[in-house]
């Protein structure tokens, strides 16, 4: 996280809000905010953080999908961004943080929506039966 903040600071002076993974129990051990204009989000809902966001910077995770759906450009820092669900519509060059590439998201959103289970399939256990063999 610290190296990414330093990288962002090369190109932008915007405030940075760090949002931790909700299940991270070790956050106190490595999250030390000692950078200018950096704060820790206290919002429970990701959408609250996205309301006034200029961009999101993530390694390779689902919040980039939510960010892009909400119209906030995402930057992937994974060295293999092709593994991300949002690689087709995300940015990978932090130096462009003040001028992110904005692509048409419609076909990506349509493809993404076809990859998810319906609520009825979740309730019936069909999704669990499918995934159980991979655990």
Structural class of the secondary structure composition? alpha/beta
Instruction: State which percent range the strand residues make up.
Output: 5-15%
Helix content range: 25-40%
Radius of gyration over C-alpha positions, nearest whole angstrom: 17 Å
Report the uncertain regions: none
Q: How much is the average pLDDT?
A: 87
**Strand arrangement, largest sheet?**
1-2
* Domains (count): 2
- Main sheet: strands, sense, barrel: 2 strands, parallel
Question: How many DSSP helices?
Answer: 7
Task: Give a count of the beta strands, DSSP E runs of length 2 or more.
Answer: 4
Can you describe this structure in just a few lines?
With 135 residues, the protein is α/β, with parallel strands linked by helices. The chain has helices at 2-9, 27-30, 46-50, 63-69, 106-113, 119-124, 126-132; strands at 16-18, 38-40, 56-58, 74-76.
Describe this entry's structure for a reader.
This protein is of the alpha/beta class and 135 residues long. The chain folds into two domains: 2-103; 104-135, no CATH class. It has helices at 2-9, 27-30, 46-50, 63-69, 106-113, 119-124, 126-132, and strands at 16-18, 38-40, 56-58, 74-76. The strands form two sheets. Strands 1-2 form a two-stranded parallel sheet. Strands 3-4 form a two-stranded parallel ribbon. Helix 4 links the parallel strand 3 and strand 4. The longest helix has 8 residues, at 2-9. The two termini are 30 Å apart.
């Amino acid at each position: 996280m610290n190296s990414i903040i330093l990288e962002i600071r090369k190109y932008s002076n915007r405030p940075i809000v760090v949002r931790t993974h909700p299940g991270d129990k070790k956050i106190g051990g490595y999250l030390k905010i000692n950078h200018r204009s950096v704060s820790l989000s206290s919002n429970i809902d990701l959408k609250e953080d996205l309301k006034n966001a200029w961009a999101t910077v993530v390694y390779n995770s689902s919040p980039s999908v939510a960010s892009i759906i909400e119209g906030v450009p995402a930057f992937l820092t994974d060295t293999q961004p092709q593994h991300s669900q949002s690689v087709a519509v995300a940015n990978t060059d932090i130096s462009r943080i003040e001028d992110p590439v904005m692509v048409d998201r419609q076909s990506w959103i349509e493809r993404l929506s076809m990859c998810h289970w319906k609520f009825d399939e979740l309730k019936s256990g069909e999704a669990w039966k499918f995934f159980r063999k991979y655990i």
